[in-house]
Amino acid sequence: MKYTVSIEIALPRETVVQLLADPAHLPKWLRGLVLHEPLSGEHGQLGTKSRVVMQMGRRKIECTETITRREPADLREIPKTSIVHFDREIVGEGMWSAVRDRLTEAGPETTLWESENEYRFSGFLMKLVGLLMPSAFRKQSQQHMQDFKAFAEQGKDVREATD
Protein backbone atom coordinates (compact mmCIF):
# COMPACT_ATOMS: atom_id res chain seq x y z
CA MET A 1 0.00 0.00 0.00
CA LYS A 2 1.34 3.44 -0.95
CA TYR A 3 -0.04 6.96 -0.56
CA THR A 4 1.15 10.56 -0.28
CA VAL A 5 -0.21 13.26 2.02
CA SER A 6 0.80 16.90 2.25
CA ILE A 7 0.17 20.08 4.19
CA GLU A 8 1.26 23.72 4.07
CA ILE A 9 2.60 25.25 7.25
CA ALA A 10 2.62 29.03 7.68
CA LEU A 11 6.21 29.20 8.91
CA PRO A 12 9.62 29.41 7.21
CA ARG A 13 11.07 26.03 6.23
CA GLU A 14 14.08 26.35 8.55
CA THR A 15 11.75 26.86 11.54
CA VAL A 16 9.61 23.88 10.52
CA VAL A 17 12.58 21.50 10.14
CA GLN A 18 14.05 22.63 13.48
CA LEU A 19 10.74 21.86 15.21
CA LEU A 20 10.37 18.50 13.44
CA ALA A 21 13.95 17.49 14.27
CA ASP A 22 13.74 18.28 18.00
CA PRO A 23 12.82 15.11 19.96
CA ALA A 24 11.54 17.21 22.88
CA HIS A 25 8.63 18.34 20.69
CA LEU A 26 7.49 14.86 19.53
CA PRO A 27 4.98 14.27 22.39
CA LYS A 28 3.41 17.68 21.69
CA TRP A 29 2.25 16.77 18.19
CA LEU A 30 2.68 13.01 17.65
CA ARG A 31 -0.68 11.81 18.95
CA GLY A 32 -0.44 8.48 20.82
CA LEU A 33 3.32 8.59 21.38
CA VAL A 34 4.28 6.74 24.55
CA LEU A 35 8.03 6.39 24.00
CA HIS A 36 10.65 7.33 21.40
CA GLU A 37 14.15 6.38 22.52
CA PRO A 38 17.33 5.90 20.48
CA LEU A 39 18.76 2.39 20.72
CA SER A 40 21.86 3.36 18.74
CA GLY A 41 23.01 6.69 17.36
CA GLU A 42 21.71 10.19 18.04
CA HIS A 43 18.03 11.10 17.62
CA GLY A 44 17.19 12.00 14.04
CA GLN A 45 20.66 11.35 12.61
CA LEU A 46 21.29 9.06 9.64
CA GLY A 47 21.46 5.40 10.70
CA THR A 48 19.97 5.96 14.16
CA LYS A 49 17.72 3.14 15.39
CA SER A 50 15.01 4.01 17.91
CA ARG A 51 12.41 2.10 19.88
CA VAL A 52 8.98 3.64 19.34
CA VAL A 53 5.87 2.80 21.35
CA MET A 54 2.49 4.17 20.25
CA GLN A 55 -0.90 3.88 21.96
CA MET A 56 -3.67 3.29 19.42
CA GLY A 57 -6.95 3.11 21.30
CA ARG A 58 -6.58 0.20 23.72
CA ARG A 59 -3.67 -1.27 21.79
CA LYS A 60 0.03 -0.51 22.30
CA ILE A 61 2.20 -0.90 19.23
CA GLU A 62 5.97 -1.21 19.51
CA CYS A 63 8.31 -0.87 16.56
CA THR A 64 11.85 0.01 15.56
CA GLU A 65 12.51 3.14 13.50
CA THR A 66 15.70 3.56 11.45
CA ILE A 67 16.65 6.91 9.90
CA THR A 68 17.53 6.09 6.29
CA ARG A 69 18.02 9.62 4.92
CA ARG A 70 18.50 13.09 6.35
CA GLU A 71 19.54 15.80 3.97
CA PRO A 72 21.06 18.16 4.61
CA ALA A 73 22.74 16.86 7.75
CA ASP A 74 23.01 20.44 9.10
CA LEU A 75 19.53 21.95 9.34
CA ARG A 76 20.73 25.54 9.79
CA GLU A 77 21.00 27.98 6.89
CA ILE A 78 19.55 25.59 4.32
CA PRO A 79 19.82 26.98 0.76
CA LYS A 80 16.41 28.16 -0.48
CA THR A 81 16.47 25.84 -3.49
CA SER A 82 17.25 22.74 -1.43
CA ILE A 83 14.70 20.11 -0.52
CA VAL A 84 14.94 18.81 3.05
CA HIS A 85 14.58 15.03 3.26
CA PHE A 86 13.69 13.00 6.39
CA ASP A 87 13.29 9.31 5.52
CA ARG A 88 12.77 6.44 7.93
CA GLU A 89 11.95 2.79 7.94
CA ILE A 90 9.63 1.41 10.61
CA VAL A 91 9.38 -2.27 11.46
CA GLY A 92 6.86 -3.79 13.87
CA GLU A 93 5.05 -7.06 14.33
CA GLY A 94 3.52 -7.94 10.96
CA MET A 95 4.39 -4.58 9.39
CA TRP A 96 7.14 -2.79 7.49
CA SER A 97 6.80 0.86 6.56
CA ALA A 98 8.88 3.50 4.77
CA VAL A 99 8.13 7.18 5.24
CA ARG A 100 9.80 9.72 2.95
CA ASP A 101 9.24 13.31 4.05
CA ARG A 102 10.14 16.26 1.82
CA LEU A 103 10.03 19.86 3.00
CA THR A 104 10.21 22.68 0.46
CA GLU A 105 9.71 26.43 0.52
CA ALA A 106 6.22 27.17 -0.76
CA GLY A 107 6.81 30.88 -0.17
CA PRO A 108 9.02 33.12 1.99
CA GLU A 109 7.04 32.28 5.14
CA THR A 110 5.39 29.00 4.07
CA THR A 111 6.61 25.40 4.01
CA LEU A 112 5.16 22.50 2.03
CA TRP A 113 5.50 19.15 3.82
CA GLU A 114 4.93 16.13 1.58
CA SER A 115 5.00 12.64 3.07
CA GLU A 116 5.18 9.54 0.89
CA ASN A 117 4.18 6.42 2.85
CA GLU A 118 4.59 2.78 1.92
CA TYR A 119 3.37 -0.21 3.95
CA ARG A 120 3.92 -3.94 3.61
CA PHE A 121 2.15 -6.44 5.84
CA SER A 122 2.90 -10.01 6.89
CA GLY A 123 0.76 -12.41 8.86
CA PHE A 124 -2.93 -12.96 8.31
CA LEU A 125 -4.23 -10.33 10.76
CA MET A 126 -2.04 -7.47 9.53
CA LYS A 127 -2.70 -8.33 5.87
CA LEU A 128 -6.42 -8.26 6.66
CA VAL A 129 -6.11 -4.87 8.39
CA GLY A 130 -4.19 -3.49 5.39
CA LEU A 131 -6.79 -4.85 2.99
CA LEU A 132 -9.91 -3.75 4.90
CA MET A 133 -8.72 -0.44 6.38
CA PRO A 134 -6.27 1.26 3.99
CA SER A 135 -7.91 4.66 4.53
CA ALA A 136 -7.18 4.47 8.28
CA PHE A 137 -3.43 4.65 7.59
CA ARG A 138 -3.78 7.71 5.32
CA LYS A 139 -6.13 9.36 7.84
CA GLN A 140 -3.64 8.81 10.67
CA SER A 141 -0.76 10.27 8.63
CA GLN A 142 -2.86 13.33 7.77
CA GLN A 143 -3.85 13.70 11.45
CA HIS A 144 -0.18 13.72 12.52
CA MET A 145 0.54 16.46 9.96
CA GLN A 146 -2.45 18.54 11.09
CA ASP A 147 -1.38 18.11 14.72
CA PHE A 148 2.16 19.24 13.86
CA LYS A 149 0.81 22.27 11.97
CA ALA A 150 -1.36 23.27 14.98
CA PHE A 151 1.64 22.82 17.29
CA ALA A 152 4.06 24.75 15.05
CA GLU A 153 1.73 27.63 14.16
CA GLN A 154 -0.33 27.98 17.36
CA GLY A 155 1.55 26.09 20.08
CA LYS A 156 -1.25 23.51 20.50
CA ASP A 157 -0.25 20.37 22.38
CA VAL A 158 -2.14 17.13 21.53
CA ARG A 159 -1.80 16.01 25.15
CA GLU A 160 -4.08 18.89 26.14
CA ALA A 161 -6.72 18.12 23.49
CA THR A 162 -10.26 17.49 24.67
CA ASP A 163 -11.35 15.39 21.66
What does this structure look like?
The chain is of the alpha+beta class. Helix content is 26%, strand content 44%. A seven-stranded antiparallel beta sheet has the order 1-7-6-5-4-3-2. The model has no long low-confidence stretch (mean pLDDT 90).
Helix residue percentage: 25-40%
Calculate Rg over CA atoms.
16 Å
Order of helices and strands: EHHEEEEEEHH
**Main structural class:** alpha+beta
How far apart the termini lie comes to: 29 Å
In the predicted model, the low-confidence regions spanning at least 5 consecutive residues are: none
Beta strand count: 7
- Spatial order of strands in the largest sheet: 1-7-6-5-4-3-2
Tally the helices.
4
- Classify the beta-strand content into a percent band: 35-45%
Major sheet details: 7 strands, antiparallel
Tell me, briefly, the overall form: globular
Mean pLDDT rating: 90
Task: Provide a brief overview of the structure.
With 163 residues, the protein is α+β, with helices and mostly antiparallel strands.
